[in-house]
Design brief:
CATH superfamily: MetI-like
Number of domains: 1
CATH architecture: Orthogonal Bundle
Order of helices and strands: HHHHHHHHHHH
Largest sheet: none
Shape: globular
CATH class: Mainly Alpha
């Protein structure tokens, strides 16, 4: 019985991997196609990459996306950390359940609803849509994910350690930065990376809150795909896959190296 389950698990794993990675492999292969048509293979060439390099529109959208992602993820991490600290330290204040629900509401609401609500708010306040409105929208959407990650880590944190630092003469700020923050730092970094990734991938919210002259990379790719998939999009997707793979391998190696280092006693 266990042998059958083992073979079943192996087959399911193989089918899942094929289902996930065959389309990616096809995309990577056709990014080196010499033809202008995506589905017609005419030979190996770097033509799509050269054309992508010369396309200033993609470069401008990429810089805008990175700028928005960096600013919004930093702000979202700071706000998410403050919300998580409030929820973990103040356990019995009135309307705590309401505050907690509002803090994570954007995570469970459809992005269309969040984007539309933000759009109506900006129109009502008379705020011109542009880089600022996109940053505000991304912060609103991603800080709830940061809050959840850091709150889960703070639930396992022993407050007596911080109280001991306070008893030894450290002030509240010093005790937080010297004791609490180093312990929850992995969760803070994880929340930042999660917010950064969500911002890079955001399409719906960015479409609602962007203005003329402010186009993120997902928005440009979506507008290009509506007219047909071009070899440039395949090349761009391949570069993104390569960057993500390198970063993932580097993080995995660093984590493994850090885990193998002996702990000083």
């Amino acid at each position: 019985m266990s042998r059958n389950l083992t073979w079943f698990g192996i087959c399911a794993l193989i089918i899942g991997l094929v289902f996930l990675y065959i389309p990616i492999a096809v995309l990577v292969v056709y990014s080196f196609n010499d033809s202008e048509f995506v589905t017609l293979w005419t030979g190996f060439s770097f033509r799509a990459y050269i054309s992508l390099y010369k396309n200033q529109g993609y470069w401008a959208s990429t810089l805008t996306t990175i700028e928005v992602a960096l600013i919004s993820s930093v702000i979202a991490t700071m706000l998410g950390l403050m919300i998580a600290l409030s929820l973990s330290r103040l356990r019995h204040f009135p309307t705590r359940s309401l505050f907690s629900g509002l803090a994570i509401a954007p995570m469970v609401l459809p992005e269309v609803i969040t984007g539309l609500a933000l759009l109506l708010m900006f129109i009502a306040l008379g705020i011109d849509r542009g880089l600022l409105t996109i940053v505000i929208a991304h912060v609103t959407f991603s800080m709830c994910f940061v809050t959840v990650v850091i709150t889960a880590r703070l639930a396992e944190f022993d407050l007596s350690v911080e109280e001991a630092a306070r008893d030894l003469g450290a002030g509240p700020v010093a005790a937080f930065f010297l004791v609490t923050l180093p312990v929850i730092a992995p969760a803070v970094v994880t929340g930042f990376l999660l917010a950064f990734t969500i911002s890079l991938d955001s399409l719906v919210i960015s479409s609602f809150t962007s203005g003329p002259g402010t186009t993120t990379l997902p928005m440009r790719v979506y507008s290009e795909v509506r007219r047909g998939v071009s070899p440039e999009i395949n090349a761009l997707s391949t570069i993104i896959i390569l960057v993500v793979t390198v970063v993932a391998i580097a993080v995995a190696l660093y984590t493994r190296k850090a885990a193998m280092q002996p702990v000083d006693r």
